């Protein structure tokens, strides 16, 4: 061992994958400059020494999963130092501000609570949260004119009615329901329908139904948002005079540009929403400022459109015989509120206070833009140039040609940002669904410093493929918008139901009834209006919603069946048997250490699945058995573990707690734990003679085992339960094995499939028969 330590301390040079130690001759130089004694001349001691050196030298060619003596990396220490400095500066600043009077004390309390704000995170909020609602002015007025038969068919009553409905929809749905009410109801800072359900799930099992339906509908619309937002913005290029002929000669050019932008957008998701949000936030600040300015320029010609702030205009026109669209007009109005649910879902990414402080600016900019488009429509409703135009978009037409160039560039960027808002919202929703065991445990990465900033590679890939499929099917924004928004009305309705339940059990029962009646009436009207889109493309989002709902429902039902089957053994039941197997020298070792990786959090008892695996078929004898579970914490750099040995030196139940920024280097951490227990005397010393993958001679061989379940043909389970389990296993197979998540790919873990021991049907006994010819042959 001393010889080996001396060798490993020497510098090593790696060339082309082969390792040679500097300061000593390699094998070729030995052959040239020194003679090696043949085996016939060597003595027994020399042979043993040479054999040992050869084994140790071969051992150095493998890479050991070692852990550092430090508890934090250099990067982590730097991050913590910066955080401590920022906190100290903030504390000093708050103390100084608090001494300046009543406003200072209010600001100090604000910055010390959950509504804390910062300029940097407000910029991120602009980029991450408001993208979807910020692109609504691109197509809302255009859709309104198309539904009324063109600009020549609308009058002052129609324009003021549309503006009134848009203003009060944004005010009631986005401002009142989501910003003022829903965002106060968070689950450890996280928002969204699944986080809301987690708070009230104990109030009734039926609440899972609206939560699942709403979450599935939100994820379905997340597929259409990138397609409709980016394609509608890219189509603005067709309004530029120098490019008109180019797009006329190449009708598919718009689609090709949209596809390229979407692919690039999904490729950069792995960088994290924080870095993306900072870049996008600055652009969104410019975008909303631009919306406000161009709106005010057109408003300056007709301030009378502000009469639409009176809700009477909206109600009167909705039920007026002059409304050619009828109740379907509300489907158009709904487009102005489509980003509200994403706003609530992305709350955990940027913080509630930053949304509170930025929303007034966003709403003022939107109102100015919508009312500016209304003023332009009234000014040009009798202009022959526009009444004969094939596809009229008031947003682009209300600007001069020079300004339109800027508008197209900004609108394309805003379309990308709108897609980002829904993508980050989808990541959050899937993460919440995973915690509820409604979806498989997918690999999650945290590329930023905060818990809310996450990236799920599988979800990113599925969203990208589905969005490209939508573009291939519908071609342009006009046809995509026919499918857009229908599923999101379902999400809003289910969110209203869950919010009302929370408010009811919070003791505000009258308020819960008023909230439920008011917002259900508005959103059911939205849903009925949006159903007019069903045959024109809405069927696609509904089909997506049903598919996602099927995944969540079957995964939840399958998990319930598996957990109902799970049994635990007490130490007095399993220790005598394991102790006998541990000392039974007639059975060879399966491995020195057998490590079972499990999701079971129970540490004082043993899962019967592990016990069954040890004794099924041929008993798996080992020097030590390990049951290891991994828990991800809300702190970034947690690294800790606890061990339960049941009073033995051969069975260890280990629970590892890792921060969400810590890599899942389970083999390296297990080696550290084994060394710690060996030093403390809890684990008998193990020596490995031959080289192995981990190159650790002080720990014996390790075999990792993962257990998957399978349904037996004889299982006594309903058809629905069997379908749920089979679907769950198919989804798990498609989503990928947890081998990569645990960092076990190089170690070739054993994946066992065990029967799911639900109650089984006993088949009738066989009847033995005697053949007559067999009796005759015997004579």
Automatic annotation (TrEMBL):
- What name does the UniProt record give this protein? Probable potassium transport system protein Kup
Name of the gene this protein is made from: kup
UniProt keywords (A-Z) are: Cell membrane, Coiled coil, Ion transport, Membrane, Potassium, Potassium transport, Symport, Transmembrane, Transmembrane helix, Transport
Please state every residue range assigned to the domain named K+ potassium transporter C-terminal. 595-753
Residue ranges annotated as coiled coil are: 72-101
Q: How does it sit in the membrane?
A: Multi-pass membrane protein
On whether Transmembrane is a keyword of this UniProt record, the answer is yes
Q: What does this protein do?
A: Transport of potassium into the cell. Likely operates as a K(+):H(+) symporter.
| Reactions that this protein is recorded to catalyse | K(+)(in) + H(+)(in) = K(+)(out) + H(+)(out)
Q: Which GO terms describe its cellular component?
A: plasma membrane
Instruction: Pinpoint the K+ potassium transporter integral membrane domain residues.
Output: 122-568
What are the TM regions of this chain, as residue ranges?
Answer: 119-139, 159-183, 204-230, 250-268, 280-299, 325-344, 356-379, 405-433, 454-474, 480-505, 512-532, 538-556
Q: Which PANTHER family match?
A: LOW AFFINITY POTASSIUM TRANSPORT SYSTEM PROTEIN KUP, OSMOTIC STRESS POTASSIUM TRANSPORTER
Which compartments does it reside in?
Cell membrane; Membrane
Domain of life, per the record?
Bacteria
Q: What is the lineage of its organism?
A: Bacteria, Bacillati, Actinomycetota, Actinomycetes, Bifidobacteriales
Q: Which GO terms describe its molecular function?
A: potassium ion transmembrane transporter activity; symporter activity
